[in-house]
Specification:
Distance between the termini: 33 Å
Order of helices and strands: HEHEHEEHEEHHEEHHEE
Structural class: alpha/beta
CATH topology: Rossmann fold
Radius of gyration: 18 Å
Mean pLDDT: 94
């Protein structure tokens, strides 16, 4: 995963676990609103540690089936183990690229969260997803509009974290603010009945406050490798963010998350 800026492996899995807990209420609402339901077959693209894949498997029930794919083999192994421990048998995990998924044009839906922002060619990925869906099949995507972060009070380390993330991802060929473009990208890719929503968890207590410093910690290697700033400044931003997050009266948000969904035309 040479272009992915966030640390992978076991450490990266623990960040994704926290992220999934923070995002779960809005994600489950999105899936229900988009129309994911019992008996459907679906693919979870960039599934990470499989948290959403397992929720999807429970949502579609025994008559349905979920395939979760990710490039990080360590996370995929963890996902398989955790699904087995949870007794969820209608989900399959594969360490592979989107190109290697052969849905035969038969998936009822495809889901992808925080994936397109990391890709150099999101349009090509959407074309591949469209081909994996049956006619009339559903696509559901969610991604960041990173400019939308906010804190109260204003905090220099928090603002610097947002800058460092966006610039590092840009240098790797991604777009941290792709969220606002999602509806247009779906329309350009040939999807119809496109709809959207905006979600943004925030709070002055709980795990949502830890997400920003934890993410900064997990992109530190990429920030320094890309020459965006020094290791010394990176460490200082991480420490200042944790200090700010631990204050009981401060408010921190996630990135603004744009959710979009639509359907492959029934006749094409």
């Amino acid at each position: 995963m040479p272009d992915y800026i966030i640390r992978g492996g076991i450490a990266g899995r623990e960040r994704l676990r926290l992220l999934s807990r923070v995002m779960r209420p809005t994600t489950m609402d999105l899936l229900a609103r988009a129309g994911v339901g019992t008996g459907m077959t679906g693919v979870d693209i960039g599934c990470g540690g499989g948290d959403v894949s397992i929720d999807l498997a429970r949502l579609v029930g025994p008559a349905g089936r979920i395939v979760g794919i990710d490039l990080d083999a360590v996370k995929i192994d963890i996902a398989r183990s955790e699904a087995a421990e949870a007794g969820v048998s209608n989900v399959e995990f594969r360490a592979c690229h989107l190109d290697e998924v052969d849905g035969g044009g038969g998936f009822d839906f495809a889901y992808g969260r925080f994936v397109l922002s990391h890709l150099k060619d999101p349009r090509a990925a959407l074309a591949k997803i469209r081909a994996a869906l049956r006619p009339g099949g559903l696509i559901v995507v969610a991604d960041t509009h990173f400019h939308g972060h906010f804190s109260e009070p204003d905090n220099a380390a928090f603002r610097r974290y947002v800058e460092l993330y966006m610039e590092t991802l840009r240098r790797r060929g991604g777009d941290a603010n792709i969220g606002s473009r999602l509806p247009g990208l779906l329309i350009d890719a040939g999807f119809e009945h496109v709809q959207m929503n905006v979600a943004q968890p925030a709070g002055f207590e709980g795990e949502v406050k830890i997400l920003s410093p934890l993410t900064m910690e997990n992109i530190a290697e990429a920030v320094v490798a890309e020459g965006v700033t020094t290791r010394e400044e990176t460490d200082g931003v991480i420490a200042a963010l944790y200090e700010f997050a631990q204050m009981p009266t401060t408010l921190l948000s996630t990135a603004r998350v744009v959710e979009a969904w639509g359907r492959r035309p029934a006749d094409g």
